[in-house]
Design brief:
Purple Acid Phosphatase, chain A, domain 2; 6 helices; globular; 20 strands; binds fe (ii) ion; about 15% helix; Immunoglobulin-like; 6-stranded mixed sheet; alpha+beta
């Protein structure tokens, strides 16, 4: 089979291999009547319904890679055409599954684009081949369906100019709250959004999770089509049978971002957004592994220790050391000045008359493990979530980093800081400006500048 590959040199390595069966995307102007990759014409039978069922959702923004997910209605092998031109000229096709077996999935297509240039804008569109899969020797490719809408994204990197980030958290799939935060995101147009956990409640099925991450809000069907999201687990994002495999929908990060010994740390990241080093950590569940409710099938203690070893090495990377500003993100707070707040290390079942809750309101274990490393790295700010109540604590002796907690989804009281927030960060005139937007009462509730 002879295939022409029209590359412009921006996709290399694994991505180039993944694209090895690619036809130039500008030859795919119309899905109708287009030949499949095997060269066979589409089957002329009953016209099936639409195969692509959502706009793309950009995941795991990075310097040289980007993840794309979208919903499909039947068995399909998804792909993305990527170009450095808005007219999609010279596009390269990247397939789900990478090399070897293309993924065939009747719910979602997951594509990881690799070998991208840092701080560079790309344009892309999605498509999928409809697959009939009846068995190991009984498969058919009925041809592609193309979503002709062209979207774009910009990769991260130290050379990004005028970059900004936003943080949302604790949306818990409450649609009115998602409407509020996504409306604000669309207004602010950040380079990247950190979704700082508790997107879920409990997700037993992929359909539930797709309602959260893909069909997130009917008024915002393209919420992540041009703005990449970096997902950080909250405690609720571990709950339910499907959430134990949430990486089958919200992909783990590109494996080459970390050393093999940290392979399982798919949610941790260090990425540069211009002068800002973004550091992602996962505080895990808000109950101890020993808690009876968890049936002995959680190992968060080891997970946190492994992340500690990762963090100790990560802060020595040039991406962190050379960054003027360093901001860490994790779901459960690493600090709380209130003595009645459960610190998450009360064995065996998180129960104590000393504390209001029988779950971790904050994470003393993570604070002890990671706090000194964050201090050593010169992290200026730690952005957390989980408490559904906006709070800012300035640095103090023994804790040189400021601590910011985003609001949550059950806000009804402006005076008690109970409202959902969008936290905005950007460098202006060489200083990191942090603004907290209350998206319920539509006001700015906090601003701080880190020089
Ligand atoms: Fe929450
Ligand atoms: Fe939480």
């Amino acid at each position: 089979m002879s295939i022409t590959i029209n590359r412009r040199g921006f996709v290399c390595g694994i991505a180039a291999a993944a694209a090895s069966a690619a036809a130039a995307a500008d030859k795919n102007k119309s899905a109708a009547g287009t030949k499949s990759r095997s060269g066979e014409p589409p089957a002329k039978k009953v016209k099936p319904g639409k195969l692509i069922a959502s706009a793309p959702v950009l995941q795991n923004a990075a310097e040289t890679s980007m993840g794309v997910a979208f919903a499909v209605t039947a068995d399909a092998s998804g792909w993305v055409d990527v170009s450095q031109s808005p007219d999609m000229s010279g596009a390269v096709r990247v397939f789900s599954g990478g090399t070897g077996l293309m993924d065939v999935n009747d719910k979602v297509a997951l594509i990881r684009i690799r070998g991208l240039k840092p701080a560079t804008r790309y344009w892309y569109r999605i498509g999928a081949d409809r697959i009939v899969f009846k068995g190991g020797y009984d498969m058919a490719n009925l041809g592609p369906e193309v979503d002709e809408k062209v979207h774009s994204f910009k990769t991260l990197g130290a050379s990004v100019q005028d970059g900004s980030f936003c943080v949302i958290n604790d949306t818990h799939d409450r649609k009115p709250v998602l409407d509020q935060v996504l409306t604000k995101i669309e207004e602010l147009k950040p380079s990247v959004v950190i979704w700082n956990g508790d997107a879920s409640n409990t997700s037993e099925t992929i359909e539930t999770a797709m309602g959260i991450f893909i069909h997130t809000h009917e008024r915002h069907p393209e919420y992540a089509a041009d703005t990449p999201y970096m997902f950080v687990n909250g405690n609720h994002d571990f709950r339910g049978r499907f959430n134990r495999r949430l990486c089958d929908l919200m992909m783990f990060r590109e494996p080459t971002e970390r050393a093999p010994k940290y392979a399982e740390l798919g949610r941790n990241f260090v990425q540069r957004l211009g002068d800002i080093a973004l550091i992602g950590l996962d505080t895990g569940e808000d109950k101890l592994d020993s808690n009876k409710k968890f049936a002995g099938i959680f190992r968060m203690a080891e997970y946190r220790k492994l992340q500690t070893r990762w963090l100790a090495e990560a802060i020595e990377m040039p991406a962190v050391k050379e960054a003027k500003f360093k901001v860490a993100f994790c779901h459960i707070p690493l600090f709380d000045p209130r003595p009645d707040q459960n610190p998450g290390d009360i064995a065996p079942d998180d129960e104590s008359p000393l504390y209001k809750n029988n779950w971790a309101s904050w994470q003393r274990t993570c604070a002890n493990l990671w706090g000194p490393l964050l201090a050593k790295a010169g992290v200026q700010l730690v952005v957390c979530a989980h408490q559904h109540c906006f709070r800012y604590n300035a640095p103090e002796p023994g804790r040189p980093w400021a601590h910011l907690v985003g609001g949550g989804c059950n806000g009804v009281n402006a005076n008690r800081n109970l409202f959902p927030t969008v936290i905005e960060g950007k460098v202006i005139d060489g200083k990191l400006s942090i603004t907290v937007h209350d998206v319920l009462y539509k006001r700015v509730v906090f601003q701080h500048v880190f020089a």
